[in-house]
Amino acid sequence: MPDFQPREHFVPVRVSDLVAFLCTESGPLHDQELSADEQAAFRRFARAVVGHVHISYATEIRRLKDAYAAFDPDADPKPLAPPAGDERAATLTKLFETFVHLMSRANYRRLTRDVMEQIMAGASEWGVDMDVAWDAFDQVEVFYRGKGAGTRTSRHWLFWWRKRELEVPTFARVAVIFKQRAHKRLADDADTRSVFLKLFKDIPQVDIEMLLPGGRIRMRKFDRWKLGGSALSSIAYVVWKLSTFSLSVISGFSTALLFALYTPLALVFGYGYKTWYSFQSSRQTYTLQLTQSLYYQNLDNNSGVLFRLLDEAEEQETREALLGYFYLWRYAGPNGFTAEELDFSIETDLKKRLGVEFNFEVVDALAQLARAGLIENTGDRYKALPLAAAHQKLDALWDRYARTGAPAPAA
Q: pTM value?
């Protein structure tokens, strides 16, 4: 049965590319090109929209920087008066809540512990099977954006000289935020006061536990079978060897018995040690493999993650606003569009003409445009203001921001 995944809200087109596409394409009916004057006017309008959204997110980044400063392990300089006691606990709670909101705006999905444990069952051929110590964290949250499939090269388990390509389900982006607590799985000098942020790309879904510290590598079933099987067979051999000696022989010839048992005892301890040592070597290999893999898949850390995610959220809101306004302005006609008609028009048109498929957040886009006064609605139908009037609205907003400051992005 095919696995039907919900479409992502993420619009996979850069803002500058989107503006160029909207200005130069002929439209869904192929005869709706913008004139040179209209192109120039829309590009000016687009720059104003970019600035309008950016100033809102500039307020957000200042707020996040202040909230994270006391928990940033890389902070330089450090805060002069970091919060303590109950104030620190309240600040920590607020930081996690703000981060969860930010991930929603950047169109990331939250992974609960139950879902993660289902995903983490087993390991890919390129990963390790690890046991996560959830009690090593005071708080931990994991988010992803984009499900896909990556191609990896592997060698055949029997004909090791042959290479084969396999398809691996992946998460395009994975973000992790956590605060550690003292735990036996962590080093004695583990940082338990800071909050760590990590951002990764192209992570195999089944190996997502590799991104959390304090994990313990599990012995593979095959290794456990080898260790247990060799021990059981050797013990059985010892028991059989003992049964070949009568009680009189055992009481009178203890030295002979010792030599007779030397071989099976050597098998038990020798082969057992060999299997254990082989597992330890495999464990070191896995650890090196993990380090090398994450070296190339790590995108950012700590405060850098905040800046990157805020930039993604800002770009996403800008794309939504530009698409919502442009399709109402150019294609809705005198009667306007309903929210459903606008949603369908944008999704089907961009899929047909650009080959991109996504779930447009029409409610968010209309809410943004309505707050800025760029659209009008009558009943359930929406129309865009003429381009010149819309530009004047944005100019008025800039004047207001200069006097009172910009609001934070809406939830």
A: 0.75
